[in-house]
Amino acid sequence: MRAIQKGEGRSCSKCDVWKLFSEFGKRANRPSGHKSQCKACEKINAWTLTKAWRDKNQEKYAEKKRAWSRTEKAKASAANWIDRNRDAVYLYNRAKRKLAVGIQAKSIVEHVQKLMKTQKCKCVVCHADISSAYHIDHIVSIKAGGRSEIGNLQLLCQSCNCSKGAKHPVEFMQSRGFLL
């Protein structure tokens, strides 16, 4: 590595290291045309200043965050993320709505993926393909005394889940002719 000549760089005012001009941001009103701090020091400084400001002004920060979340750019960014993560969003919302008691959404996503493999993408009752659409069902419904636990979940097609409703699993399977 060759030494930096006097006309090729300058010393950073923060870290006091001699660096090339390309490592400094542009600034038109300075004699050299570059900022006094290198890009790395400037980035660290900006982050610490921002964090310090956030800590001091929590209410203002919360309001700015709410205002930004209402902008079109924020909505487009969220919509883009949702489009790329449809399955996770679906499972997370189901978990929040129905299975919030004692089960975390992340563990439900993992469990549903395991159930898909175990059930070979088939409905437990009618063996229809559920790879594109399925319902997460409580084997023993909440109304019948079942709990929102990983071991009490199964994947069914929409028609089987809707016809099962809150019936006890034995009663439901007998109505379908599977059990005596």
In short:
The protein has 180 residues and is of the alpha+beta class.
Structural class assignment: alpha+beta
Tell me the overall shape. Answer: elongated
Portion of residues in helices? 40-55%
Largest beta sheet: strand ordering:
1-2
Q: What percentage of amino acids are in beta strands?
A: 5-15%
User: What letter string, H or E per element, gives the SSE order?
Assistant: EEEEHHHHHEEHH
Characterization of the model:
The chain is an alpha+beta fold and 180 residues long. It is built from seven helices and six strands, in the order ββββαααααββαα. The strands form three sheets. A two-stranded antiparallel sheet has the order 1-2. A hairpin with a 7-residue loop joins strand 3 (24-26) and strand 4 (34-38). Helix 4 (86-98) packs across helix 5 (105-118).
Structural key phrases:
180 residues; 12% strand; alpha+beta; two-stranded antiparallel sheet
Question: What secondary-structure arrangement, pairings included, does this model have?
Answer:
Layout: E1 9-11, E2 18-20, E3 24-26, E4 34-38, H1 39-56, H2 58-69, H3 72-84, H4 86-98, H5 105-118, E5 135-138, E6 153-156, H6 158-164, H7 169-175
Antiparallel strand pairs: 1-2, 3-4, 5-6
Helix pairs in contact: 4-5
